[in-house]
Amino acid sequence: MNLVKLSWKNLTYKPWATALSIILFALGIGLVSLLFLLQSQLQKNFEKNLAGIDLVVGAKGSPLQLILSSMYHVDAPTGNVSLQEIRPFLNPKHPLISDAIPLSMGDSYKSYRILGTDQALVDLYEAELAQGEIWTKNFEATIGAGVAAELGMKVGDKFASSHGFMDDADMEHDAHAFMVVGILRPTGAIIDQLILVTTQSFWLVHEHEADTSGAHATEDLHVVPAPLLQEDPAKEITSLLVKFKGRNFQALNMQRSINENTDLQAATPAIEINRLFNLMSTGEQVLRTLASVIVFVSGLSIFISLFSSLRDRKQELALMRVMGSGRKKLFVIIIIEGLLIAVIGYVLGILLSHGGMQLFAQMMQESYRYSFSGLDFLKEEGFLLIGAVVLGFIAALVPAVQASRTDISDTLTGSA
């Protein structure tokens, strides 16, 4: 019988003690792994959706709320701003701004957000068409890959928008339907979860509902809209995504200038997201500390389990010595037992963490339309395996030394 099989038989001699050590170890490893997965995928999602945007301009309120609603689409907007207020930033000849992408929010379809914007948003996320074409006329819609997959929508389908971000039939705008004219390829960014239409479509939906005189003829709605600079300055959008031509002093000072001298609010995405991560770091640190405590306790449990089992196995170990097993062999057997508990606990912990992450991914998909996965494996988990093996070795070291020093005569004569 090889040493690994012998070590396994020794562990199964006291299954409950072994199981307790493995479960404790798995919980610690699983929690650490889950934290790694959450941090990695959250950071990847947030960074991917920054998309090179330098500034977000919108209504006064919380700057973090402005960023979350305009770039990550996980919060309500801070309000609307008029074209009159935002007009200077839409000027294509602006000396500091290379791109200014308007966003109009507030409606949805089956909880997927409808976004009034222009085609520059597609370029921002480097999205490509999978089917159909990019929207050009009012009440045409190009949808993200996630929307198409989840709702089973295809080119030519029609749908009615709803007010707000919840799937509520009572809030449906039944005055006019949108038609899907294109579906984008998956990008892994938030655009996969959006329904893109013209800004003017947003206005027309609400104007058509409010208009009881029949002034808006249906056949006049499906037209290529005019540029926003030519629209009524009293009309409103939600926010503006801004990219600078260069990062000179004037560009970097634009945020403060807007906040101090206008009724608008400007926020820098990178700064606000770092602030969000700082807010989350306290809770994350608490969980990391808890995980470390569990791992330490599990290592202590392995030590106690192996150490206490030696008392019941002294005669067995002495007999092995009589039958020719050297001190080194006894030492190795106990070390293997510690390593087996650690490796099994690690594997079980990784399965728990990735299974938990997959459940979490489904909840996040339903609540926020963000892509998370329990099928991603990180290099940090390889380091975690090394740490688990080292901890198993250390926990088994003292019992292994004691086993190797088993005195044959004293044990067999019962004096030990």
Question: Which descriptors apply to this entry?
Answer:
416 residues, alpha+beta, 2 domains, eleven-stranded mixed β-sheet, two-stranded antiparallel ribbon, 13 strands, 14% strand
Count every helix, treating DSSP H or I runs of 4 or more residues as helices: 14
Beta strand count: 13
Tell me the distance between the termini: 28 Å
The chain-level structural class is alpha+beta
Which percent range fits the helix content?
A: 40-55%
* H/E element sequence: HHEHEHEEHEEHEEEEHEEHHEHHHHH
Name the average pLDDT. Answer: 83
Written overview of the protein:
- With 416 residues, the chain is of the alpha+beta class.
- It folds into two domains: 3-46 and 283-413, no CATH class; 55-267, no CATH class.
- 55% of the residues lie in helices and 14% in strands.
- It is built from 14 helices and 13 strands.
- The strands form two sheets. Strands 1, 3, 4, 5, 6, 7, 8, 9, 10, 12 and 13 form an eleven-stranded mixed sheet that branches.
- A hairpin with a 2-residue loop joins β3 (97-109) and β4.
- The longest helix has 44 residues, at 269-312.
